[in-house]
Amino acid sequence: MNATETAPETAPAMAEPTPRVLIVDDERAMQMLAGAIVDKLGYDFTCASSGEEAAELTKQAIEEGNRYSVVVMDLALPGGMSGLEATIAIKQLDADAQVIVSSGYLEQNARSAALEHGFAGILPKPYTADRLASELKWVVKRSNAATQENV
Fold first, then answer.
1. CATH classification of 20-149, choosing from 2.10.109.10, 3.40.50.2300, 1.10.4030.10, 1.10.3470.10?
2. pLDDT tens, position by position, for the chain (151 residues)?
3. Staple partner for 55: which of 6, 89, 93, 106, CB 3.0–4.6 Å?
4. What are the backbone angles phi and psi of residue 117, rounded to the nearest 5°?
5. What is the pTM of this model?
6. Where are the chain's structural domains?
7. Segment (H or E) for 36
């Protein structure tokens, strides 16, 4: 193609935005593990070490118009705001927030109870890369489907 020729215009593809994941865990090793898994899935991620930090990051994301697709929330956060309290704060900021509850104290069959309490998914610790990937994909797919129904 020379300088006088122009490429035919094509309609821009309406690609799904890259899912953004907020990983909330007080253990740095868990943040790094989850972050590596989320990154391998092609998702963007941010880590928070406390409930207060998670709520602040959620508020900033909303203000920037770039909210998180999913929050992976450890329930056992020491000091300050617990994971449950942080989830409530996040839901007050973003009623549509998709929060996956993560804890070493969850029963494998606790999904229905978690869903009844407003969690989008459940991730018992210790989890594998496949388990985290599966849960994230399931929640993102459900969330996208719900968003499409509301359009």
1. 3.40.50.2300
2. 455 555 455 444 556 689 999 999 999 999 999 999 999 999 999 999 999 999 999 999 999 999 999 999 998 898 899 998 999 999 999 999 999 999 887 665 566 667 677 789 889 888 899 999 999 999 999 888 776 666 5
3. 89
4. -90, 10
5. 0.83
6. 20-149
7. helix 28-40
